Input
Amino acid sequence: MAYVITRLCVDCLDQGCVEVCPVECIYAPKEASSPDRPNMLYIQPIECINCGACEPECPWQAIFEDREVPEMFAGDLSLNAQTVEQPKQFRVARPHRDAEGRLQPKARPTADQVLANRRRWDDKP
Ligand code: SF4
Ligand code: SF4
Output
């Protein structure tokens, strides 16, 4: 088992999950986004120790245990698996810090914003 980041993360990328992952198994794509590799973070499913620390840190509710991924995001398991299949296309994600090394403030979306973000994907495959 592993946790999975879904497309609810696309273009959010505050990296709150990255700060708490004890094994640095959350990755970012090296290249600009594409339909096959959207602008989001990805969990490497073999390295993930299934600790669950990242899930409550995500303000966009984008992270699920693999067996709990909603049907509309079922394809995102294969997106995350790209970190195993194409490791050279990814780098370990690092928390955003300012010039003094301080962690950047996190997004604090409202419940309506979280819902609106989810609805962006309602009609997409
Ligand atoms: S479940 Fe734990 S090990 Fe896996 S990505 Fe989240 S924080 Fe990292
Ligand atoms: S905390 Fe959630 S939205 Fe932010 S980068 Fe991690 S998975 Fe994406």
